[in-house]
Amino acid sequence: MLIRPGVARTPDDRFAGLPDFPFTPHYLEMADARLGPLRMHYLDEGPRDAPVILMLHGEPSWCFLYRKMIGPLVAAGYRVVAPDHIGFGRSDKPTERASYSYARLVDWMANFVHALDLDRITLVCQDWGGPIGLRVLATMPERFAGVAVANTLLPTCEPPPRGVDGWPGPIIEAWAETCRTSDDLPVSEIIAAVCVQRPEPAVLAAYDAPFPDAAHKAGALQITCCIPLDESYPGVAENRAAWDVLETFDRPFLTLFSDSDPSTIAWEAVFQTRVPGAAGQPHSRIAGAGHFLQEEQGAAMAAKLVAWLGPAG
């Protein structure tokens, strides 16, 4: 539904009765000079004074993706914060594709971190959570205690070892072209298509819940078009600057990629070799998962994080 011209908000009743999702919604209203105030949704579980695990989803998912991981991490003593990017989940959704850019997505998330005054953050990021979250880290590295990257990337359109061979490759090129030329997306079917096992119908319905019609999907369509496919794209210089920061980041940096995601696996080695904090870490490939490993192997991923981080204290 439109809350004002150019901004939609998914009705609350779309989120009733979601499977295994007992979490209380929280909202933060952020000023936006072009669009007016935007409401950003997030989950916030665990002690407010505990070290923070900031979980960032990608496209076209939302914080529902992390539901299997929140409980074990809270039980280990952590505060888990899982926001929905603007345009996704229960957050407000600008209805024009021109309202979205890579830089604006980064700014919205950076403003969120500042507004909640998050500190001692371990960033957990997958898909677009990586390109957004790692750019946020680069602007305020002092707030981050560690990073776990999963099936994600931070492209700079450079050859190996600074990038991946043959970037962007046929999978990402085809996905970007699909989003560029489409005016709607079958969200749950996209998620199902890149899972090893098809999720249950109620789970797929939960991924569709934020998007009652095409008017609510401008962000889900446009975000893919923001991937820097060559040096002419916005974001290349900013990503290279973010890598300059990451190449000095000596706090713990873990890779948790899955065994069945051909679109991102080449970035595993880039992160392991370019980030100093990745040296000596217990990197893992998680078995039995496609691109959305939190959905298929969330419990295993949570166990890896708990073993790596140890109990909060």
TrEMBL record:
<dbReference type="InterPro" id="IPR029058">
    <property type="entry name" value="AB_hydrolase_fold"/>
</dbReference>
<dbReference type="InterPro" id="IPR000639">
    <property type="entry name" value="Epox_hydrolase-like"/>
</dbReference>
<dbReference type="InterPro" id="IPR000073">
    <property type="entry name" value="AB_hydrolase_1"/>
</dbReference>
<dbReference type="InterPro" id="IPR051340">
    <property type="entry name" value="Haloalkane_dehalogenase"/>
</dbReference>
<keyword id="KW-0378">Hydrolase</keyword>
<feature type="domain" description="AB hydrolase-1">
    <location>
        <begin position="51"/>
        <end position="157"/>
    </location>
</feature>
<dbReference type="GO" id="GO:0004301">
    <property type="term" value="F:epoxide hydrolase activity"/>
</dbReference>
<protein>
    <submittedName>
        <fullName>Haloalkane dehalogenase</fullName>
    </submittedName>
</protein>
<dbReference type="Pfam" id="PF00561">
    <property type="entry name" value="Abhydrolase_1"/>
</dbReference>
